[in-house]
Records
---
Amino acid sequence: MTQAQSLPLPVATASIADRSSPAWLGGLQDLVREHAFEPLRVEGRLPQGLTGTLYRNGPGRFTIGGERVPHWFDGDGAMSAVRIEGGRASGAARLVRTAGAEREERAGKRLFGGYGTPLARPVRELLLRDGKNTANTSVLLWQGRLFATCEAGRPYEIARGDLSTLGESSLDGVVAEAFSAHSHRVPSRQTTYNFGVTVGRSTRVDVYALPDRGRASRLTGFTIDGARLNHDFAATGRHLVFAFAPHYLSVLGMIFLRKAPVPSAAWKAERGTEIVVVPIDEPTRLVRFKVDAFLMEHVVNAYEDGGEVVVDYTH
């Protein structure tokens, strides 16, 4: 077993003020030091020939103007990386400099709500779509470019050399408003697929194709009734599968009861979960049907078995 770490640790665990605290607590505290790639001490020996870079993204700043956001998912994104090359290891860690984070820095206070954080300016955030993309959930490496992703907005491009933020990207005008954190690559097609959800009186879903070579494109789109979220989807060699649970966000709850977006939602089991299947070769010929209510949070695996599409997911 080999382990790479730094002295002092330049990643999230360095933010633990009390060294007697459990290590996992570092994932819930602010990143205290940002830096480009620095040498890491290697304990043990790295396997011969092992080379590459492991990128990770997650919430890395929870305190805004002296106020701590109350939900883990709402911290500003922080990219980290461990690079192994020539028998040596180096590491880097930086916050994602999103437009929303910089606006809050200038204001010295919280300006936005999020997944589990009440909206700061409900009318402006809801009606004028003046929200915050924390870019804090996952990473996408596409055609040599690195992106920090979060379903609340477009991807943020990150410099692979030092993890500095290059800026929000529409992938050359393709991404409308949102881009999910959980893209899926289909090796047989040499293409990565993803989607974006725009929430309103009804919910618009845009489906994207990102080929290993060539330009990104919008594959298709469809709408779902009501204001709803969707975090993940499944991809097989021939189909993309979406499951929309009957979990409806409440605009009135967010404005008048000051509930955070997801806690404002009502579960309406009698409406069932709507399944939408997109045939990749004929993306406009959607197959839609309803089943008993359930919520699919993350997809574990998906494949085709004869005439069946099989999806393994967390329920």
---
Amino acid sequence: MAKAIKKTAKKPAKKSVRKTAGKVTKKAAPKKTTRPLKKSGKRFLIIYHAPIDAMAQTANASPEDMEKGMAMWKAWAKRAGRRVTDLGAPLVNGKRLHSNGSSAPSTRDVTGYSLLEADNLEELEDLLYGHPHISGWHPEATIEVHATMLIPGM
């Protein structure tokens, strides 16, 4: 005996609506949330050092020279890719604060910073190879690297 097969016509999905005071309004679509990228390596603070006169040299550079310098930074950042967690910024007008409340201008030659992510120091050094800060910009320019430590519960 053959069973009768019932075909049910698919009904188009109705849009959810809400009636309020004689008006029909659509319900808001659920908001999409973006999740932060999961970190895969250790974080390193990169500190850029150069003499004060190097910063003056940069401030007085022609627009063409500035563009060349920025092109080098952009190329390096593209090569480093997602390992750059914060490209950072130039730093100026540092100040040293003391526990007694006094302060004085910083005498350090810190000119900028970046945050990078790498699995180990060797990989980090590979990322920094050919970095524009130490590729002839100024003969005394250096890069200092510090691994960050995770603080439990923070």
